[in-house]
């Protein structure tokens, strides 16, 4: 992608995984910032913190209290070591100031089963794959990770509202082009994306998937990408995740 023709016909779907890549790998065959022309953010994906239905913690505040009363005993489930859910769990642990163990699993299905049967005290994953379990009562949602509530779970507070200051986490994706793409081409793609995100059918489908469609300027995306890289690099370092 970094070496493709800068004509606007080859685009890169960036994710926060790209932003954390420098912290997770010893070397990369490209520069995540300077080898690409940023175009716009596309969507933001909140995650949700859940417990099993039999958990004594009815709120996030109660769960944090339990963790502080029993240091090192709380298990937090996630998937994909070094991935979004894992890093979100690690950041929650440090931001909440609790001594807990983050336990990565191979799949969301494993996390759901372990949370439902009480082997995990808390789990972090994207909203969409957990939504049916939450609505059926098989999982209890304590808080969503983004800075504002998810319309599909209007009664579930944000982590900020639930009493953990400074925690605002959403996965995201964005569009970029090769670095030498002319500004006029970048602007044309940007305008088409803004129009697509405003389409009612796109907004409706995004809502079903727990996605907030939101465009940015190329400059805003570049600044945001750099800030995200710095933020998650610090999380990786604190969590002592080894580079590959």
Q: pLDDT under 50 segments (min length 5)?
A: none
Structural class: alpha+beta
CATH topology value of the largest domain: D-Maltodextrin-Binding Protein, domain 2
DSSP strand content: 15-25%
Outline the structure in words:
This protein is of the alpha+beta class and 244 residues long. It has 2 domains: 12-44 and 170-238, 3-Layer(aba) Sandwich (D-Maltodextrin-Binding Protein, domain 2); 46-144, Periplasmic binding protein-like II (D-Maltodextrin-Binding Protein, domain 2, 3-Layer(aba) Sandwich), CATH 3.40.190.10. Helix content is 41%, strand content 22%. The protein is built from 8 helices and 8 strands. The chain has helices at 16-24, 60-69, 84-96, 108-116, 127-136, 183-198, 200-209, 218-239; strands at 12-15, 36-51, 74-79, 100-105, 122-126, 140-144, 170-178, 211-213. Strands 1, 2, 3, 4, 5, 6, 7 and 8 form an 8-stranded mixed sheet that branches. Helix 3 (84-96) links the parallel strand 3 (74-79) and strand 4 (100-105). Helix 1 (16-24) packs across helix 8 (218-239). The longest helix has 22 residues, at 218-239. The model has no long low-confidence stretch (mean pLDDT 92).
Task: Summarize the entry for a quick read.
The protein has 244 residues and is of the alpha+beta class. 41% of the residues lie in helices and 22% in strands.
């Amino acid at each position: 992608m970094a070496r493709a023709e800068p004509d606007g016909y080859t685009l890169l779907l960036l994710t926060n995984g790209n932003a954390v890549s420098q912290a997770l790998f010893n070397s990369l065959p490209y520069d995540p910032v300077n080898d690409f022309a940023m175009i716009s953010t596309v969507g933001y994906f909140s995650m949700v913190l859940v417990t099993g239905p039999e958990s004594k913690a009815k709120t996030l505040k109660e769960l944090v209290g339990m963790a502080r009363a029993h240091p090192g005993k709380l298990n937090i489930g996630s998937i994909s070591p070094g991935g979004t859910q894992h890093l979100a769990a690690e950041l929650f642990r440090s931001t909440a100031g609790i001594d807990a163990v983050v336990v990565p699993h191979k799949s969301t299905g494993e996390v759901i089963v372990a949370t439902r049967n009480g082997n995990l005290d808390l789990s972090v994953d994207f909203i969409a794959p957990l939504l049916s379990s939450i609505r059926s009562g098989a999982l209890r949602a304590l808080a969503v990770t983004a800075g504002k509530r998810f319309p599909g779970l209007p009664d579930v507070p944000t982590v900020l509202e639930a009493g953990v200051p400074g925690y605002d986490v959403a996965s995201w994706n964005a569009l970029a082009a090769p670095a030498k793409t002319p500004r006029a081409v970048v602007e044309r793609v940007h305008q088409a994306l803004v129009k697509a995100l405003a389409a009612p059918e796109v907004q409706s489908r995004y809502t079903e998937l727990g996605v907030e469609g939101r465009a940015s300027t190329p400059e805003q995306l570049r600044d945001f990408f750099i800030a995200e890289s710095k933020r998650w690099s610090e999380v990786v370092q604190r969590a002592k995740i080894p580079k590959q």
